[in-house]
């Protein structure tokens, strides 16, 4: 399922127009993105938790040359599925 499929499914399930469903889906994505960029986590009970994991700087090797290189510290978005989602999938 891609984003357009999701918008169509939301429109069908909620009775919204496709335009309103697009706004709703975009609004949810924007809200989650803004919360994560502030360092907050988003908990959706029964669905899952979106959070940010911090990765430390590390040393790696360039696969082509084999020479050591520094990998910068970064923040990575992370999702942990909730019990309701796990049960629905299994």
Can you walk through the features of this model?
With 90 residues, the chain is α+β, with helices and mostly antiparallel strands. Helices cover 43% and strands 30% of the residues. The protein has three helices and five strands. The chain has helices spanning 3-14, 18-37, 83-89, and strands spanning 42-44, 48-55, 58-61, 68-71, 74-81. A three-stranded antiparallel β-sheet has the order 1-2-5. A two-stranded antiparallel sheet has the order 3-4. A hairpin with a 3-residue loop joins strand 1 and strand 2. The radius of gyration is 19 Å and the shape is elongated.
Topology record:
Layout: H1 3-14, H2 18-37, E1 42-44, E2 48-55, E3 58-61, E4 68-71, E5 74-81, H3 83-89
Antiparallel strand pairs: 1-2, 2-5, 3-4
List keywords for this structure.
90 residues; alpha+beta; three-stranded antiparallel β-sheet; two-stranded antiparallel sheet; 5 strands; elongated
Number of helices: 3
User: What's the Cα radius of gyration?
Assistant: 19 Å
Number of strands: 5
The unreliable regions are none
Q: How would you write the strand order of the largest sheet?
A: 1-2-5
Global structural class: alpha+beta
Instruction: Please give the alpha-carbon distance between the first and last residues.
Output: 19 Å
Bin the strand percentage: 25-35%
Summarize the structure.
With 90 residues, the chain is of the alpha+beta class. It has three helices and five strands; from the N terminus they run ααβββββα.
